[in-house]
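Figure 3 (text version): structure tokens given as input.
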């Protein structure tokens, strides 16, 4: 099975849990389960296996959570791990349980690294990303973009100051780097004249 049966710590007995947690074990009695008639033996489901046959892995090893004894029978292949972001994600899967915040934070970091790489690749392509039209900023014209953000009771007010930095910051940084690179190439060429 994909999940291990090992459970750390002492397991409380059902009566103790029922006394401590209101509603615990509400579905233990089959009569209380709405899907119970379908769980009866002899009803044909069409499944001809206990566990589905294992999907073959192509192109290397797939990420597998530490909670799993083996790779799940079916998995996605559309986005294989690659580059630095792939190494970060692989580290998250190899080192941390899915119940730990570090696992998910590393996956987010891997996503951000992948996103930054895509933005850099876009800058050097024939059709670079356009931060004005593709960010939705122009869609806010005529819809009170400033006053609607300052209304009381908005949940996102705590991080509103950070949004321009995260959206525009990478573009400003890329522009500064390109300017310095261009300057480093042009100034020595002028001095040689």
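Below: residues designed for each position.
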């Amino acid at each position: 099975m994909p999940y291990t049966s090992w459970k750390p710590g002492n397991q409380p007995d059902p009566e103790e849990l029922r006394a401590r947690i209101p509603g615990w074990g509400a579905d233990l009695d089959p009569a209380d389960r709405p899907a119970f008639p379908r769980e009866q033996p002899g009803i044909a489901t069409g499944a001809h296996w206990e566990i589905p046959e294992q999907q073959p892995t192509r192109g290397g090893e797939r990420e597998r959570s530490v909670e799993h004894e083996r790779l799940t029978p079916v998995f996605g292949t559309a986005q294989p791990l690659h580059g630095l972001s792939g190494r970060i994600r692989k580290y998250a899967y190899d080192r941390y349980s899915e119940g730990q915040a570090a696992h998910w934070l590393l996956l987010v970091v891997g996503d951000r690294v992948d996103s930054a790489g895509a933005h850099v690749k876009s800058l050097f392509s024939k059709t670079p990303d356009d931060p004005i039209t593709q960010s939705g900023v122009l869609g806010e014209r005529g819809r009170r973009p400033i006053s609607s953000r300052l209304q009381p009771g908005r949940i996102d007010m705590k991080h509103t100051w950070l949004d321009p930095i995260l959206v525009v910051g990478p573009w400003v940084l890329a522009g500064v780097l390109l300017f310095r690179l261009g300057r480093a190439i042009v100034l020595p060429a002028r001095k040689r004249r």
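The chain has a mean pLDDT of 80.
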